[in-house]
């Protein structure tokens, strides 16, 4: 009697066990997501994020640290080379 099936919230698939459903969601609907640091969107690939940032946020490179720490770059480089 206790054959309650779990439905995937993203598609119509049914699973008998939560672990199976979770594995399905991770594989089919989530994958390895890369979040954009400038907005809430996520992407499946690093390249897609870079292209999105270049287009939407008008930045040429996915290189936040150099932008943020432009003034500290010299001292950072020096400490890195130690
Ligand atoms: Zn699904
Ligand atoms: Zn973005």
How would you describe the overall organization of this protein?
Pfam families: zf-C2H2 (PF00096). This is C2H2-type domain-containing protein. Residues 6-34, 34-62 form the C2H2-type domain. The protein has 4 helices and 4 strands. It has helices at 18-30, 46-56, 64-68, 73-80; strands at 6-7, 14-15, 34-35, 42-43. The strands form 2 sheets. The protein has a two-stranded antiparallel sheet with strand order 1-2. The termini are far apart. The longest helix is centred in the first third of the chain and has 13 residues, at 18-30. With 82 residues, the protein is mostly helical. The mean pLDDT is 76. Helices cover 45% and strands 10% of the residues. The chain has 2 domains: 1-31, Double Stranded RNA Binding Domain (2-Layer Sandwich), CATH 3.30.160; 33-62. Residues 8, 10-11, 13, 24, 28-29 line the site of one zinc ion. One zinc ion binds next to helix 2.
